[in-house]
């Protein structure tokens, strides 16, 4: 490749990755608008999140085998087409079933894009050539996260909740064209050609296992685990499906993911930190829009601008850290600093959760949060695969993205469940203090329908802020515990 095509290729690979990132992000940012637009209950909405994760897990299991047959370029083009179809289904059918179906198809399209992009960079470049590619890769991926919330906020005012999915479909079209024009058309012959048959039962089993497991997690919001035999049985079914997949892969002569190659301690520690980061990130992506819109009364456009500011900080930081990666020593301390910064962002946000807080008071919060992908995800990525041989990289990255999808869906589910629990508890506590002696009830029209509606809305707003403060304090505590663990362990250096 010439210089310009190389630059465009690296940027396109990053933009392809950003399609998956932004799709997951916007499901958290616009959750209230989407739920209201399709008339989805919280459990229906979480089903849509789980459907995306389950089909994404399936694609991460099969992408290397499919891409080795049809090339990574054709796999990426086909995935983007499927993603566009899923986005249009989400936008067209204003019902919970339409949302779940569309998100499942979106997961089939976008779920494997991150892993496919990163594996392709590894396959087509020599070690000395990866730095310029990774620079453009990081810039494209984080730039997509920066621009998507801002543009979606603009379109949502004119179109409504459908703008979330119409914009996703629209932005995928130029990315698809760039893939067709810039991706390499051929690569050296694969020294490990794919086997003659695909082990579909194993892939389908792990996807169904992820769906059943996440559904069980969601049901714990409404039903106690041992209150009926259904939930323990569902959990056992999920574990059984995972075990069946592991058994099939263990017996397969050329498994899609060879777990025996991934037993390195550094890789497993990195996988754990990856999963924790994506779980925390998805929790944050759910919490920030919920608290700013339902709690502080900010508009969706303002929330989108705050998220775009965070994404811009991440983009600039990713470019700088990639350029100076060789100068970053003692990466464990950088990762620990990232968790501390995340904790500071959570505590600062909880401090700002006061009625009437201006939008500019949240700018320091999003600036701090924007540093966390650079300090955490990028640093973990630079250490996780040091001991993984090149021929095992696709196995390692596929399994990492399986864990990413499950962790992201779990984080969103947990955040939604704890928020619902907190809302119920604080609303009950607040209502107990609303008596006939309340000064606001002494007004002439206090007991009118409009007056009671105002009191109810204020109770809901206060309950949201209090529940959010509780969750942010717990979030910060988890980050601090993770920071201490990073510093004291010696296996991830």
Summarize the structure.
This protein has 493 residues and is mostly helical. The chain is built from 16 helices and no strands. The chain folds into 3 domains: 1-183, MFS general substrate transporter like domains (Growth Hormone, Chain: A, Up-down Bundle), CATH 1.20.1250.20; 200-255; 263-493, Growth Hormone, Chain: A (Up-down Bundle).
Q: What's the mean pLDDT score?
A: 82
The total tally of domains equals 3
Rg, please?
23 Å
Q: Order of helices and strands, N to C? A: HHHHHHHHHHHHHHHH
Would you kindly provide a written description of the structure presented here, covering whatever features stand out?
By secondary structure, the chain is an all-alpha fold. The protein has 3 domains: 1-183, MFS general substrate transporter like domains (Growth Hormone, Chain: A); 200-255; 263-493, MFS general substrate transporter like domains (Growth Hormone, Chain: A, Up-down Bundle), CATH 1.20.1250.20. It contains 16 helices and no strands. The longest helix is centred in the C-terminal third of the chain and has 40 residues, at 393-432. The radius of gyration is 23 Å and the shape is globular. The model has no long low-confidence stretch (mean pLDDT 82).
Keywords:
single chain; 493 residues; mainly alpha; Growth Hormone, Chain: A; 3 domains; 16 helices
């Amino acid at each position: 490749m010439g210089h310009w095509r190389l630059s465009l290729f690296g940027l396109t690979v990053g933009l392809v990755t950003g399609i998956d990132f932004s799709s997951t992000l916007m499901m958290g940012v616009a959750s209230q608008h989407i739920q209201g637009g399709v008339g989805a209950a919280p459990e229906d909405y979480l089903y849509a999140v789980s459907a995306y994760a389950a089909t994404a897990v399936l694609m991460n299991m099969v992408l290397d085998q499919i891409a080795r047959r049809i090339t990574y370029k054709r796999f990426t083009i086909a995935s983007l087409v499927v993603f566009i179809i899923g986005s249009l289904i989400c936008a067209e059918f204003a019902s919970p079933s339409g949302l779940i179906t569309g998100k499942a198809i979106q997961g089939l399209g976008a779920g494997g894009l991150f892993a496919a992009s990163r594996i392709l960079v590894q396959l087509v470049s020599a070690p000395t050539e990866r730095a310029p590619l990774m620079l453009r890769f990081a810039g494209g991926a984080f730039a997509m996260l920066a621009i998507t919330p801002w543009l979606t906020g603009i379109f949502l005012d004119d179109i409504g909740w459908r703008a979330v999915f119409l914009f996703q479909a629209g932005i995928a079209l130029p990315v698809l064209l760039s893939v067709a024009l810039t991706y390499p058309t051929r690569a050296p012959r694969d020294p490990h050609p794919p086997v003659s048959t695909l082990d579909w039962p194993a892939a389908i089993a792990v996807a169904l296992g992820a769906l059943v497991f996440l559904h069980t997690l969601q049901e714990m919001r409404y039903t106690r685990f041992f209150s009926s035999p259904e939930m323990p049985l569902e959990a056992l079914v999920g574990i059984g499906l995972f075990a069946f997949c592991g058994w099939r892969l263990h017996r397969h002569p050329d498994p899609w993911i060879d777990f025996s190659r991934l037993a390195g301690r550094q890789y497993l520690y990195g996988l754990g930190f990856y999963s924790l980061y994506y779980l925390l990130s998805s929790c944050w992506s759910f919490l920030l829009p919920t608290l700013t819109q339902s709690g502080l009364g900010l508009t969706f456009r303002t929330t989108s601008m705050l998220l775009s500011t965070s994404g811009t900080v991440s983009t600039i930081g990713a470019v700088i850290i990639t350029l100076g990666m060789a100068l970053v020593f003692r990466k464990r301390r950088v990762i620990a600093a990232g968790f501390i910064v995340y904790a500071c962002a959570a505590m600062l946000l909880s401090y700002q959760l006061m009625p009437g807080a201006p939008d500019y008071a949240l700018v320091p919060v999003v600036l701090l949060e924007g540093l966390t992908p650079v300090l955490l995800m990028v640093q973990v990525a630079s250490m996780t695969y040091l001991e993984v041989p090149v021929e095992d990289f696709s196995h390692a990255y596929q399994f990492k993205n399986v864990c990413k999808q499950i962790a992201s869906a779990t984080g969103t589910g947990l955040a939604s469940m704890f928020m619902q629990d907190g809302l119920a508890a604080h609303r009950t506590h607040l209502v107990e203090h609303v008596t006939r002696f309340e000064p606001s009830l002494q007004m002439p029209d206090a007991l009118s329908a409009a007056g009671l509606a105002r009191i109810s809305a204020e109770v809901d707003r206060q309950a949201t802020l209090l529940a959010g403060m509780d969750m942010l304090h717990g979030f910060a505590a988890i980050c601090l515990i993770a920071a201490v663990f990073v510093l004291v362990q010696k296996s991830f250096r």
